[in-house]
Amino acid sequence: MLADLLLVLGFAVISLALRGSGLPFLHRLGNLCVLLTSFLLGWRLTGHVTVGIACAGSWLLLPWVDIVTRVRHIHMPTDRPLLPQAPPGSSRFPALAELTEEIECQGFEQIEDAGWDHDEQRQFVRLFIHSTDCIRASINLVENEHISFFYLTLCSYTPDGNLWCTWNYPFSSSLKPSPNWRIQRMRSANTFQEIYQAHHDWLSLLEAGPVIPLTSEPTQLTAEIVQELQAQVAHNLHCGVLLKAAEGQVRYSWRGCFFLWTQFLRDLLRA
Q1: Are residues 7 and 97 in the same domain?
Q2: Which of 1, 34, 113, 117 is the most exposed place for a label (fewest CB within 10 A)?
Q3: pTM for this entry
């Protein structure tokens, strides 16, 4: 029994060490070691392989339980206007001033602070445009009772109607992107300049063509973002990921629940 405990403890230590590594490959390997540690814990302490499999599988099934019992019953509005909003204080978003300065140093002009609130979730958006490069940038803060995080986004439109978006959103998307969206995800980006350069290089590499000039009028700019979100909701309704609920609201279908679960598994492998 002591040898079994030491074996499990050894794999647990290895898991923590790998997950603490700054290298993405080693971090993913650490996630797999967590599953192996759980398997060994159930198997070696009970003598039954099936118990070990159940222990390892619980890490994969627990999110499914939450999705089915809670997330599936959440109703979301189809129309979420971005309204002018005062910026969050330093206690809520201490990095806002530094990020704003970094973006403005790259030639962007701050246009608007906006946001929307729904139930226990809040989202704040600070919008910028680069008139020369025709790029829209934003600082996005998402807050709810479970988690708070921010991410940066750079967007360009081309005459063919495609939206080219580079961002460092930390999770897989909870909805399928619209057919005209082209997304470059940079989870490991540390600075805005890195994302900005990557966006330029991406458009050049793919020969996306000329980009459309942007409006600097705050109301029109926020209206464009609302239209993009509405198009995404409409696409997910068409795909069956979302279902119409009450008037002006949608919720996840069973297909949508499965989509969310696969997105969680993707994050687990990529983390």
Answers
A1: no
A2: 1
A3: 0.79
